[in-house]
Amino acid sequence: MTTPALLEQGFWAFLATAGFAVLFNVPTRMLAVCGFTGAMGLMWRDVLLGAGAHPVAATFVGSLIVGLLGYTQARFFHMPRLIFTVTGIVPMIPGIAAFETMVFFVRGDVSAGVESAVVSLLLIGAIAFGLVTARMVMTLGDARSPAPPRGIWLREHAHRDPDVGAS
Amino acid sequence: MIPAPDPPPSQPVQHLSREELGELVDVVIQVGQAMLESGAAGFRTEQTMAQIGLGLGADRVELYVTPTGIIATAISGHEQRTRVGRTGALGVNMAQTVALNRLSRHIALLGGTLPAVRRHIAAIHSAPREQPAWVTIPAVGIACAAFAQILGGDWLEFAAAGVGAGLAQALRLILARLRVNAFALTVACSFAASLAAAALCHALDAPQPELAVVASVLLMVPGVPLVTSVIDLSSNDLVSGVTRGTLAFILALSIGIGVAMTLWLTGLDIVP
Asked: How many pairs of residues across A and B have Cβ atoms under 8 Å apart?
């Protein structure tokens, strides 16, 4: 992929992510940050696709980048990580594949429909596992990361807020 | 950042009265409902609730959080109170998540009084959206139109997708105010968006109408429940994960129904 084309994709991804951030009621001063995250994720994916990577692998890496950026930004801006990651993956959502699935089913072409359904599920899975992997990488060896026993919270847990980022 | 005060180690622990504890559980449940309704994952909801409960003086908080309901118990001394709360429609409101998270950190570090926290939560609840409707509608339109470009369309598809998505967002705001069921709302908005985009593509003679139709309904895609579902599953919260996954699936199906009606109406045969 040529550099101008890549930058153009990044620009559109920035607009798309920032627009979705408005829809999700993200605090106004974080809109540009969300847009940047989305653009980076999509541009990494495009670079890998251009280099001949499998779409699922490329999407996984793009979403991993979004997750890692989300961690950094959550620490830097003191905001929950959720607002950067959930908006950042928006440009990679497999809209076309999901759409084709439905059109094929409406047409009665079940086998083609199942095929594109599997493709879109794999891509969504790649997005989700990219984010999960980012969390695993960032909390590796962090002594504070094992959460207090789920469901039961005692006094000594009160002052221990592991990180700013929300999952 | 607020510097953390030194913990008071020698101070005798003051137990809450039965009435105070009841009110504390009530506040904790309110926080949990607000977190879930604004799209937070199960674990973060639980953590926020616990920080507020403990910060307000409970010795022990026991929680069971699912996307549709919360069971919370607070214990102080020999007293304990339990409440159950149901949640309303699950939406997305990042500003509310941020504000509640910040409130819980303040209370965990500095403590607080029940009336003040109650007031604070009411203020967070009634805070207006970050952007008014006249900004949100064009912003969503441009976002979806940008998708038409990302997917490989051109300016004609860009325009069609933008108009369709903006129309759908306006319709969504109206229907949400009328308290229409979320699934019916999704069907209606996807139908309106895709029909407008398809019609405009036809009028402008755009070469790739399918891109415009896809991009125009992207604003309805349940991205937040989808991602939160996997996050819940990955933190072993199977009930929340499956619940949210099902919600996302039904919403996606609703989009499909809306678009299918458009395809049937316009007779577009738009897959290559």
From this structure: 197
How many structural domains comprise chain B?
A: 2
Give me the residues of B, 79-108, that contact A with CB < 8 A. 92-98, 101, 105, 108
Task: Quote the domain boundaries for residue B34.
Answer: 18-126
Of A132, A134, A136, A102, which is closest to residue A117 (Cα–Cα)? A102
* Residue B117 C-alpha from the chain's centroid: 22
* Cα-trace Rg, chain B: 23
Determine contact: A46 vs chain B, CB below 8 A: no
Q: Which residues of A touch B211 (CB under 8 A)?
A: 96
Nearest-5° angle of CA B184, CA B33, CA B104?
A: 140
- Of B126, B149, B181, which closes a domain? B126
Residue at B156 is within a domain: yes
Percentage of chain B modeled with pLDDT above 90: 44
Tell whether B195 is covered by a domain: yes
Whole-complex ipTM? 0.85
pLDDT 10s digits, A44-57: 999 999 999 899 99
Cβ neighbour number for residue B3 with a 10 Å cutoff:
6
pLDDT band at A144 (very low <50, low <70, confident <90, very high): low
Cβ–Cβ below 8 Å for A95 and B215: yes
Hey, is the C-beta of B41 within 8 angstroms of any chain A C-beta?
Answer: yes
Decide if B175 contacts B185 (C-beta within 8 A). yes
The confidence score (pLDDT) of residue B168 equals 94
In-domain check, residue B49 = yes
In this complex, is the C-beta atom of A86 within 8 Å of any C-beta atom belonging to chain B?
yes
- Is B34 within a domain? yes
Please tell me if residue A32 touches chain B, with a CB cutoff of 8 Å.
no
